[in-house]
Amino acid sequence: MRRRMPDPSPTTPPGLLLATDLSARCDRPLERAKQLADEFSIPLVVLTVHDAPQAPGEVLQWLDGDAGRTQQEGAARAEFAREFAGSPLQATQHFATGPAAAAILDSAATLPGAIVVAGASQHDSLGDLLLGSTVEKLARGLAQPLLVVRQRVRGSYRRIMVATDFTPASKLALETAARLFPGRRITVFHAHDSETLVPDAPPHAELIRFLDGCALPPGAHELLDLVIGEGEPASQLARHVVDNSIDLAVLGLHEESALMRLLTGSRSEYLLQAVVCDTLLVRPPVRHGEDDENEKT
């Protein structure tokens, strides 16, 4: 008889932190943040960061110093008021100055447990964002989940997939998905290369053992759809996302990799470029000993 981990209760995040400049390029993450705030009935903090200027008009405002920032904030406040006029959502607006990643990390530290929402340009791949960018720095530094929004909002997340390589990071990814979205079917996806498969450890048996070690809410195990692909993991995962119109992929970040690899043994750069759906990135808590070592280096 198999023994499972004790069942925890579903978890509602205490809030959402949306990093945005309220421009058209941020429409998708804004709409998703509003949808999730309504679904969970939680507060939404909209953070606008004054970073380096990106357009000629912004350069002039930047040169004006405090006066320019005051003008930018006034415009952002007006846009925020129009966006949430008549809305039942509990939304507040915050401002920060400086490098975007540092400002978002500082704000997130004041909202423990909140989901941080960021956006991707429709012309950029997730890989472009995560390699040498603000989102990469957020993925490295955040203690809470990071939701990278790419798709238009068409309702709640219904087609949810968790990728697993049987590591603690992917265990946390599945537990997080099941607690945030109770009562919904979740596809647990594992891909293996047949050339490296150990004969006495068939992938289905290993997947069952992995699931038995996950602490999921009551009834969640019965809502899991198990999919095992054979072949290069990154390409198999990317194909499954497209073929099954996945709304949300939940991926666990590995602590041991300097590049924050998402799946052990896979070409993470290719994986990140190929995943076209919204992506929730979660990472295990950093152990205190590791923090101490990082401070020494």
UniProtKB/TrEMBL annotation:
PANTHER family: STRESS RESPONSE PROTEIN NHAX, UNIVERSAL STRESS PROTEIN UP12. Residues 17-150, 157-283 form the UspA domain. This is Universal stress protein. InterPro entries: Rossmann-like_a/b/a_fold, Universal_stress_UspA, UspA. Belongs to the universal stress protein A family. The lineage of its organism: Bacteria, Pseudomonadati, Pseudomonadota, Betaproteobacteria, Burkholderiales. Coiled coil: none annotated. Transmembrane segments: none annotated. It comes from the Bacteria.
